[in-house]
Amino acid sequence: MTTPDMHRPELVCPAGTPSALRTAVDAGADAVYCGLQGPTNARNFPGLNFTAQELRQAVAYAHGRGAKVLLAVNSFPPAGRTAEWKEAVDIGVAAGADAIIVADIGVAQYAARTHPGQRLHLSVQAGASSPEAIRFYCRAFDIKRVVLPRILTVKEISDLHSRIPCEIEAFIFGNIGMMAEGRCSLSSYVTGQSTNMDGVCSPAGDVHYSEDADGALVTKLGQFTIDRFARGESAGYPTVCKGRYCTKAKSGYYAFEEPVSLNLTRLLPDLMRAGVTALKIEGRQRSRAYVKAVVAAFRRAVDAYMAGREPGLDNLLALTEGHRETQGAFRSKAWR
Amino acid sequence: MQPAFRHAGSARPYPGAATVPGSSQPGRRYQDLPRRALEPVPLFLLRPLFAAIVAGVAGRHPELFGRLGPEGGKRILIDPVNLPFVLLLRPYRYRPSLTPHRRSEAVPHDARICGTFLTLLELIDGQVDSDALFFSRDLRVDGDTAAVVALRNALDDMEVPLADDIAGHAGPLSRPMRAALGRLRTFRSSHR
Question: Structural domains in chain B?
Answer without folding.
Answer: 30-161 (3.30.1050.10)
